């Protein structure tokens, strides 16, 4: 596969002889303040443009084979441990090349934990929108990922999202009743504030959302759901008498 590097990436990389050296280039600007995107948020969270692209599949950021299969028709997702995609923020120019190979991406799902300080939660939302705005600036298809914690985060968690557009959420980790209740409350708030036209769901919506007036929903299986389905098919295969099937090899998550 040919590696594609957006033109804007090379334009950002300054040298000592260029005018860009007058400000902090690349990783010397750890806060990425060389780009402050338009915003209507009182928190300064960047405003993203709507995207009508509906991906056929979602490929994990760190999975090379999935990225190849998704190129042109799918999108990258970031429903992973945060350390796996931190470079989308720390090295945005370099990370953009990987997104360009696929052509589309959800915004990074920087975690908002319930016990996280509010200032850190605002920062995580800011970073997610900032990276999305950068990718849109590079001409890539970008679908905003929406995350929240408790009701105290609703004041900023939905800032920068385009109204009436396609949005994405993930349901990984919704195991206890409290988490499901908070997720339902966030989805209800999202519907009120943003009225999405299409909701992309990585995983399955919990039953707690069944009574909501949802838009069209498109679900995508998680890696674990795909593995379970493959394992079931693997067990059902006909094998010679007395022979045990080989164990599936898990992907390094």
The shape is globular
Strand order of the largest sheet: 5-6-7
Q: Give the DSSP E fraction (strand runs of 2 or more residues).
A: 5-15%
Distance between the termini: 23 Å
Please write the string of helix (H) and strand (E) elements: HEHEHHEHEHEHEEH
Unreliable runs: 244-253
Total DSSP helices: 8
Secondary structure category: alpha/beta
Rounded to an integer in angstroms, the radius of gyration calculated over CA atoms is 20 Å
Q: What is the helix content?
A: 25-40%
Query: For the report, how would you describe the main beta sheet?
Result: 3 strands, parallel
Number of strands: 7
Arithmetic mean pLDDT:
86
Description:
The protein is α/β, with parallel strands linked by helices and 253 residues long. It contains eight helices and seven strands; from the N terminus they run H-E-H-E-H-H-E-H-E-H-E-H-E-E-H. It has helices at residues 7-12, 64-70, 87-90, 92-102, 118-137, 154-157, 177-194, 223-236; strands at 58-60, 75-77, 104-106, 141-143, 166-170, 198-202, 216-220. A three-stranded parallel β-sheet has the order 5-6-7, with no helix packed on it. The chain has a two-stranded parallel ribbon with strand order 1-2. Strand 5 (166-170), helix 7 and strand 6 form a beta-alpha-beta unit. The two termini are 23 Å apart. The model is unreliable at 244-253 (pLDDT under 50).
